[in-house]
Specification:
about 20% strand; seven-stranded mixed β-sheet; transcription; alpha/beta; about 290 residues; WH_DNA-bd_sf
């Protein structure tokens, strides 16, 4: 039999990013948390965590974390049929991209979360790498750009987000007065969300440019727009996020008529109970505009 106290220790370590903070979250000492992991590893006969160079679950640890995610959700279903069974409010740990969180996500899932009484634990990840969180057992579901489901999970297309290369009119006059050319791209600072963000590279490749370019790194969707509005650079911004600035003339496209369409896919474990199934049905009805 699986000792779920040991699995909770493993999951909390991964969610908190370390043994000390996991102990604080569970009301245990760091030594007690370490002992639980050691007991789990002795029972399995193999390690469940890799501690160096970065904390990460082993393949066995991933399978255990995936199992625990599904058990947590199934227990919620059990409580609906057995009201005397005491359970805490369900908490869904979900990985999603920052642009979705800054635009359509909250308004789209608010009603469902209130009706289902669900709490959210959101992990913001770049849309190209969020699926790794699900594979590692760190989240119960993820929203990302990958259309390839992982073993044991389902993948549902939700639509796509439209990105435009935006900057202030003054910035465009300064750097792109002669159009989109190699000289302009080599000099004009861009804004990139993070090291995994490839939208800027895709746009430049679409324009026929594959060389180096200067850029700011800004791992904040709201901060990204603020940098563009301040004239510090141009960047790929969701059309829905910049609608007001576009309408008011504060931002404009450096390449009118050009856009990048980024698909969004919802990934979740197949046998995760009614809560995730209901949320999935709810998300499928959302229109991304």
């Amino acid at each position: 039999m699986v000792d779920y106290k040991l699995l909770e220790a493993l999951a909390t370590i991964m969610e908190c990013g370390g043994f000390e903070r996991a102990g604080e979250a569970l009301g245990l000492s760091q030594s007690a948390i370490s002992q639980r992991i050691r007991a789990l590893e002795i029972r399995l006969g193999q390690p469940v965590l890799v501690r160096h160079p970065a904390l990460a679950p082993t393949p066995a640890g991933q399978r255990l974390l995936n199992h625990l995610q599904q058990v947590r959700l199934l227990e919620r279903d059990l409580a609906t049929t057995l009201p005397t069974l005491e359970t805490a409010s369900p908490r869904l740990r979900i990985a999603l991209n920052a642009d979705s969180l800054a635009t359509w996500w909250a308004a789209s899932i608010g009603d469902y979360c209130r009706q289902a009484g669900v709490l959210l634990d959101l992990v913001v990840e770049d849309q190209d790498v969020g699926l790794k969180r699900l594979r590692d057992g760190d989240v119960a579901a993820c929203l990302c750009a990958s259309s390839q489901p992982i073993a044991g999970a389902r993948c549902v297309p939700l639509g796509q987000m439209t990105y435009l290369p935006l900057a202030t009119p003054a910035y465009i006059d300064r750097f792109f007065f002669d159009g989109l050319g190699e000289a302009a791209f080599r000099q004009a600072p861009a804004i990139v969300y993070g090291p995994h963000d490839q939208l800027q590279h895709r746009f430049l490749a679409h324009c026929g440019y594959h060389g180096p370019f200067p850029y700011h790194l800004c791992p904040s969707s709201e901060g990204f727009v603020r940098l563009a509005r301040a004239g510090l650079g141009y960047g790929m911004i969701p059309r829905m996020q910049a609608a007001a600035q576009l309408a008011g003339g504060e931002l404009a496209s450096i390449a009118p008529g050009q856009a990048l369409e980024v698909p969004l896919y919802w990934h979740f474990w197949r046998h995760s109970g009614n809560l995730l199934a209901g949320l999935t049905t709810h998300l499928e009805a959302v229109e991304l505009t």
